[in-house]
Amino acid sequence: MNGKIKVGLMGFGTVGTGVVRLVDSYKEDFFNQTGSVIEVSRILVRNPEKERSVFVNSDIVTTDPRELIYDQEVEVIIEVMGGIEPARTYILEAIEQGKHIVTANKDLMAIHGEELIKKAREHGCDLFYEASVAGGIPIINAIVEGFSSDRITKIMGIVNGTTNYILTKMSHEQASFDEVLQEAQQLGYAEADPTSDVEGLDAARKMAILSSLGFHVGMNLEDVSVRGISKVTLEDIKYGEQLGYTMKLIGIAKKDDELIEVSVEPTFVKNTHPLANVNGVFNAVYVYGEAVGETMFYGPGAGELPTATAVLSDLVTVVKNIKLGVNGRNMATPYNVKKLKREEDIYAKYFIRLIVNDESGVLAQIAKLMAAEEISLEKVLQEPYPSNPKKAELILVTHQASKKCINNVLAAFENVDYIEKVKSCYRVEGGE
Amino acid sequence: MNGKIKVGLMGFGTVGTGVVRLVDSYKEDFFNQTGSVIEVSRILVRNPEKERSVFVNSDIVTTDPRELIYDQEVEVIIEVMGGIEPARTYILEAIEQGKHIVTANKDLMAIHGEELIKKAREHGCDLFYEASVAGGIPIINAIVEGFSSDRITKIMGIVNGTTNYILTKMSHEQASFDEVLQEAQQLGYAEADPTSDVEGLDAARKMAILSSLGFHVGMNLEDVSVRGISKVTLEDIKYGEQLGYTMKLIGIAKKDDELIEVSVEPTFVKNTHPLANVNGVFNAVYVYGEAVGETMFYGPGAGELPTATAVLSDLVTVVKNIKLGVNGRNMATPYNVKKLKREEDIYAKYFIRLIVNDESGVLAQIAKLMAAEEISLEKVLQEPYPSNPKKAELILVTHQASKKCINNVLAAFENVDYIEKVKSCYRVEGGE
């Protein structure tokens, strides 16, 4: 090694541009930290003709991945193309050529993480992916290094900026989901096809990654129970606010004894909880350790420079490892057996909103149905139903109850004539 | 190395007890992470007869430091005695014997950090001190690793739990400083001699450590401008609240171009800023990176188990480094030249509270004095002065102004007869 580290960059979109920009402006700091000069010596692009907001010599731009993978001088590949294929194939091939990998690809890591890490380990290569979760927050580092001596029991967070922006706007501006989504798309905070964000898939991928690291197990995307925010109404948000809650798309990974639950769903968070005040495109992850108690990490969840920063902090680690000759040895690997909770093992408080007949005895009947499932109530709010004076809105907040019992009671509610409709049901978090 | 790492523990107070407890209960997790069993094989105590809340074999307890320092089998020394001497001498001697050091000693690191790190590096030993700042928050790791590819421009935080507890109580319960301090002492949140916490020295030590790491310079305790909370009155807090501020003891380390300022002082934080909502004994550190923008780290600042966790996460790193054979190479060392700001380079908003004559023209005169120092006003609040109807309380909040100009204008205020008294002056943070 002659003091220069050559890097191949796969993907030249927003994050790729940020990487090139940062490598350039932080050359001196890199050198001070690693003793090496870093050079992006090859960039894989789809369209070499496209205008970029950052200047690079056209000689280094290519559409042929082999020019990176088989370049003997390239020691590290930074993959910021996104998507599963061809990224997965390129990375596997690059590892076989002894390249270290830094990736921001949450889709890939959530689904093929184990395979890729195993391969990297076999070839003595590093594979790091800090940028795949909560761009600007060094949350993977915090979980892997900072909590190395503790047992993490719960990870709870806002890990998708788009949905947090939408829910914040709905709440602050009393606007509907569709209105705010359109606005977010115009501002570039939401994609033209917003499904992955809005339906919770993006958050679920991140929670799969965080729970794998936090609990030392191999979690797959299918292990995460997912529900998006597209059906959240402004009315739900308002009733929640009356009761002291803020609506957030919350990812939860929880371990009780040996049993794990991981979910992403619209959740009412108590206003006194730090997560309730995380607004706009910001992300925040709350990590609960058996010894340390409650901690929270807050920062920008995405964006060109925050994500590029996370990529480059991994790159610094790779380069230090190259100097130390310890690549491929410091990656987190699962050593615990994965046991998932069943619905009867998952306990939470729930917010249930019903339209009921406004007659005497109805509340008593409903309470009886709930008692049959051993669900008790923490709060009840009854309000007139605007469009029909014979009906009423009834909001129930339960004490801790199993998800199975909640589902049972929701099914029972569908079958009684004094309940016109189950409007919504959300998990409640952030209190005792 | 036979798969067992023997550790010598210096100090067996609260944190030491926590370390013994954690080492015991996390044996299995340690093994899974490091491939080694960790054993506390020697404990240095002052009084071997003292009752402890955790059981250890009396054979391993000693009052002679040489039994740890010269024990060939001990590879790592954990120092949780606190204070400068004899901790400094013991650590230097232990390093000479090739021991790796993990310390929670902020006093020592703030004053002799450079000397100790240099010594450790010379002997190929690790020296880590995550537990010295904000116990349960892996903030040193976040700054060193997470921000390795960014340029930190500002670190701002609540790094002392005792004072945050006192200020929170004063504000929430409308109580005086003396009342709350007494209560905190009874609850064990404040020491019998509270000077180090209350006068900001503890926070200053932590800011010296964080700013050294964040800006890659050797900051000393004397470089930190310090002011405690003992003169903060309930009236100040209430007037601040009327203007939308919360009083916090804030540590600030800021770098503009190449110039650095580090201070600890009672500060009004805008209520919309995340730090305003950090209450009780919790700590929070907000780190601003040029690329990443704003991030915040929140958690318990002290306590037996949170601090012990930080000690043990450092121990995990040491043990991994032993396995990798890379000790003594991964510690942060200053590579930038330290240039401190003068008073005329330090810019902030300020809250100034005056008792003035309640006569026409007074505000105009005051504004004129301020204009002479090029200070302009963002907010003005005038309230009747309770005990004298001829006087008025006047609160001024300035736009950004240099500390020098603020000091000049405060001096000028002392010399005019229409101002009876300058009651207080605080820095204001958390807005643009």
UniProtKB/TrEMBL annotation, chains A, B:
L-homoserine binds at residue 191. It is an enzyme of class 1 (oxidoreductase). Keywords: Amino-acid biosynthesis, Metal-binding, Methionine biosynthesis, NAD, NADP, Oxidoreductase, Sodium, Threonine biosynthesis. One of its GO terms (molecular function) is homoserine dehydrogenase activity. CDD domains: ACT_HSDH-Hom. NADP(+) binds at residues 10-17. Pfam families: Homoserine_dh, NAD_binding_3. NADPH binds at residue 106. Residues 351-427 form the ACT domain. The keyword Chaperone does not apply. Its cofactor is a metal cation. The active site is at residue 206. It catalyses: L-homoserine + NADP(+) = L-aspartate 4-semialdehyde + NADPH + H(+). Its EC number is 1.1.1.3. GO terms for biological process: methionine biosynthetic process; threonine biosynthetic process. InterPro entries: ACT-like_dom_sf, ACT_dom, Asp/hSer_DH_NAD-bd, HDH, HDH_cat, HDH_CS, NAD(P)-bd_dom_sf. PROSITE patterns: ACT, HOMOSER_DHGENASE. Pathway: Amino-acid biosynthesis; L-methionine biosynthesis via de novo pathway; L-homoserine from L-aspartate: step 3/3; Amino-acid biosynthesis; L-threonine biosynthesis; L-threonine from L-aspartate: step 3/5. Belongs to the homoserine dehydrogenase family. This is Homoserine dehydrogenase. It comes from Caldibacillus thermoamylovorans. The lineage of its organism: Bacteria, Bacillati, Bacillota, Bacilli, Bacillales. The gene is hom.
